[in-house]
């Protein structure tokens, strides 16, 4: 008997939008990875349904073509990934879909944990929102077997809203995602050493509570290590060479990180890989095993060069600690992508200049300078609303675009000028340019470097 078909959709957009689960933004340079929520859904839903994936962004499919494909197909439901940078655009497309065809439409994004009910109440063409893409109760919902509390989903039933059962376990396990449904030959990140590459999720949320980040408000759950290794074995058979561990913070627990690394080595999984790391969680034991298991790059949240700003937003690190960890990573020849934020409330011109100076002092390979963005679910958003820097409601915003808030000390224009200054001063230093030149190994490296430079400076 033919199984019903579900569409997993990364909707079209007018920019290279990355709808990351915890935040969404347009790519600041020439990089793009597949949406981790849709990847995980492929494994869960494949148990009962046939799956089709459309990544309209990476395949350059516009709204008209995307709509035509959907209306001329026989999908039982669409699960689309979304976020604050594209929500209005995504919802407008879904409204057109509902007018043209009767099928279930489900929105997926981390922010649905905070605003899911509001979204369903406002947009009657949506049938449900996913609040946790690792929960398997999406299957009974799609099959109509919803006569009991479901985890990870809020949905409509008989004119009322049924909220998600939030008593979730601290660990989770998922069926191996069907990565082959994604054309991972098209995805790219400049820090990758090899291709093809894809992303793997080993945990949800974050146990820390930085005031500008949604991941901490989401809660922290870890995936069973053997379940992670099972997926890595599958990817190895598919010929994938490079992994981005797309957890908000991969390095939380030393014992767990060491176990994952040991099992990668024991199973002779010859991946090169990168991950998101937290400065206060990094120690030499952990770094040593990560390097042995194939880690070549970590992305770390440095955020600010001002200890008072770090303290205000609960980073629980100091500038001196940042310097020590960077030195340790360099000692093991692990490359560093440093994340910085420009324009946090409490900052003035001098504190931002200290951040720029710190970025130049540190021996890091890539620096990302994001604009302070009051994401849904963060303490920064609460502050912006309380001080009337932001209007209530659900706004579209992008941390790579012009600032949407100004504070007591800085105008939007000044924040933007300082962000442009940070990019130029970091990347146009003769010492940095010479260092990058010596790291070019082949023609592909040249293409990536040129493409990223054009993208980066065209937006600065």
General form: globular
Number of strands: 18
Mean pLDDT, to the nearest integer, reads: 92
How many H/I helical runs? 16
At the first level of CATH, what is the class of the largest domain?
Answer: Alpha Beta
Oligomer: single chain
| End-to-end distance | 55 Å
The number of domains: 2
Topology-level CATH name of the largest domain: TIM Barrel
Unreliable spans are none
Radius of gyration: 22 Å
Q: Describe the sheet with the most strands.
A: 7 strands, mixed
CATH superfamily of the largest domain: Aldolase class I
CATH architecture descriptor name of the largest domain: Alpha-Beta Barrel
Strand order of the largest sheet: 4-1-5-6-7-8-9
Summarize the amount of helix as a percent range: 25-40%
Structural class: alpha/beta
> What portion of residues belong to β-strands?
15-25%
Report on this model:
- The structure is a single chain.
- The protein is globular.
- The protein folds into two domains: 5-162, Rossmann fold, CATH 3.40.50; 189-427, TIM Barrel, CATH 3.20.20.
- It has helices spanning 36-45, 63-71, 87-100, 112-122, 138-143, 215-218, 225-238, 254-266, 284-292, 307-312, 319-331, 349-361, 379-386, 412-427, 430-438, 443-458; strands at residues 5-10, 17-19, 24-26, 50-55, 75-81, 104-108, 128-130, 153-157, 160-162, 171-172, 197-200, 203-204, 221-223, 242-245, 272-277, 295-303, 335-342, 366-371.
- It has 16 helices and 18 strands.
- With 460 residues, it is α/β, with parallel strands linked by helices.
- The longest helix has 16 residues, at 412-427.
- The protein has a seven-stranded mixed sheet with strand order 4-1-5-6-7-8-9, with helices on both faces.
- Helix 2 packs parallel to helix 3 and helix 12 runs parallel beside helix 14.
């Amino acid at each position: 008997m033919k199984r019903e078909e579900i569409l997993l959709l990364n909707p079209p957009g007018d920019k290279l939008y990355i709808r990351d689960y915890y935040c969404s933004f347009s790519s600041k340079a020439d990089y793009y990875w597949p949406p981790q929520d849709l990847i995980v859904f492929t494994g869960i839903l494949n148990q009962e349904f046939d799956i089709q994936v459309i990544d309209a962004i990476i395949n350059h499919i516009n709204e008209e073509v995307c709509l035509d494909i959907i209306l001329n197909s026989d999908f039982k439901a669409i699960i689309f990934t979304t976020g604050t940078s594209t929500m209005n655009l995504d919802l407008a497309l879904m409204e057109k879909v509902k007018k043209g065809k009767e099928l279930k439409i489900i929105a997926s994004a981390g922010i649905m944990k905070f605003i899911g009910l509001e979204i369903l109440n406002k947009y009657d063409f949506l049938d449900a929102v996913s609040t946790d893409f690792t929960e398997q109760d999406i299957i009974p919902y799609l099959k109509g077997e919803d006569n009991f509390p479901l985890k990870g989903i809020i949905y409509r039933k008989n004119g009322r809203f049924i909220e998600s059962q939030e008593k979730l376990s601290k660990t989770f396990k998922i069926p191996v995602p069907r990565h082959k449904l994604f054309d991972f030959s098209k995805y790219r990140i400049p820090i990758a050493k090899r291709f093809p590459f894809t992303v793997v999720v080993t945990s949800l949320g974050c146990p820390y509570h930085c005031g500008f980040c949604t991941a901490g408000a989401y809660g922290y759950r870890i995936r069973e290590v053997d379940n992670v290794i099972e997926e890595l074995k599958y990817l190895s058979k598919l010929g994938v060479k490079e992994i981005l561990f797309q957890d908000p913070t991969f390095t939380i627990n030393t014992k767990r990180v060491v176990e994952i690394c040991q099992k990668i080595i024991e199973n002779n999984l010859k991946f090169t890989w990168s991950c998101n790391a937290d400065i206060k969680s990094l120690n030499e034991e952990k770094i040593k095993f990560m390097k042995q298991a194939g880690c070549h790059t970590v992305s770390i949240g440095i955020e600010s060069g001002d200890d008072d700003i770090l303290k205000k937003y609960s980073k629980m690190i100091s500038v001196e600690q940042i310097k020590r960890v960077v030195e340790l990573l360099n000692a093991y020849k692990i490359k560093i992508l440093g994340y910085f934020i420009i324009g946090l409330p409490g900052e003035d011109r001098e504190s931002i200049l200290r951040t720029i100076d710190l970025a130049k002092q540190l021996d890091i390979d890539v620096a990302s300078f994001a604009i302070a963005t009051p994401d849904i679910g963060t303490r920064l958003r609460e502050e912006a609303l309380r001080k009337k820097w932001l209007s209530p409601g659900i706004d579209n915003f992008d941390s790579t675009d012009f600032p949407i808030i100004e504070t007591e000390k800085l105008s939007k224009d000044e924040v933007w000028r300082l962000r442009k200054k940070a990019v130029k001063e970091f990347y146009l230093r003769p010492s940095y340019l010479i260092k990058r030149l010596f790291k070019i190994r082949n023609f592909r490296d040249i293409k990536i470097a040129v493409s990223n430079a054009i993208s980066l400076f065209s937006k600065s």
